[in-house]
Amino acid sequence: MNRLLLIRYGEIALKGGNRPFFEKRLLRNIQDSLWGLRPFEVTFRRGRYYVKISDDNLFAAQQRLQKVFGVVSISPVFEAELNIEDIYSEAYKLLEANYTPGMSFKVNTRRSNKNFPNTSPEVNSNTGAYLLDRGLDLKVDVHNPNIVINIDIREKGAYLYSQTIPGPGGMPVGVTGKGLLLLSGGIDSPVAGWMASKRGIEMEALHFHSPPFTGEGAINKVMDLCKVLSAYSGNITLHLAPFTEIQKQIRQNCPEPMLITLMRRIMFRVAERLALQRKISALFTGESLGQVASQTLENLVAINDVTSIPILRPLISFDKEEIINISRKINAFDISIRPFEDCCTLFVPRHPVTRPTIEELQKAEEKIPVEELVKDCLENIETRTIKSRE
Q1: Contact partners, residue 47, CB within 8 Å, separation at least 6
Q2: How many domains does the chain have?
Q3: Which of 33, 83, 213, 270 is found 20 to 30 A from 44 (Cα to Cα)?
């Protein structure tokens, strides 16, 4: 037996003449999310998507659709013909599927099809009377019912539902361009990537690792974080950049307090060039203002100094607890706290500089072959694809 899922969007409705572009992208993302659950059929009518899918795959489809950005809510629905008798029949099926003796109910009708002969109040009262006459132990409660039977009368049919399952909202992934996420193994950067994807960014990820100081455990951790993000964003291209030689050069030749800031300046040089190669418009990071010494305003300005493309920081004003809450919500937290170090935690100075000047940093960089190190790092990047449904 096939069932029907009704999918609603939100701010796409505000896009005016560009709305069809957003609607088509969301349609494609919905179809992609249901990969492996065939047979299914997705149709679009007047601001609503309808997924016809087998009963066996209904729950799995709901779970996947709850991770499609642009989807505001989902409802399993019963479909009725545009006549009042069929609406009565489907309302009874819906009630029966959720019935417990002594329960209360309410009927709520939305009639966007004004050609339907019965008004919304008439459908409410007549459907309620029909259900009360079926011999079930029921009562009407319009203020606090156990179940609300919603009837949505539209151009092609009537749709009845009692559940409204929240989706993630936001914009369909892919409608606002491409970004490169600097992905560490920590808590913050995966959350930043999730938030960027929520605003429609198609994301690639760049991770710096330092073999032999960081091992396969750290890389597997980052791949698992990409897997979590890919459930929301689709397939993710992960770039693994070797950083060992860069860290050695900085540690041996530069002032210790500047170590983290100098490392990050080179990371962002590598990230910018990779982004330009990949035709990516902006960099995304998990930096939060003042959270650690390397994220003071002066340090962020010093990092921005080495790039010409935008660096976007979705978490800039978040506190740690807010970030952790989102990390738990998207099931990334338990992965992020695995005890595998990334390259940023290896050589942390005892007293990192918090207010460096760009002139001081540039003078320190004269002691290392910056251009050669950046070029060598780029040439040795390994690229992997993390598939969302593998």
Answers
A1: 8, 9, 13
A2: 2
A3: 83
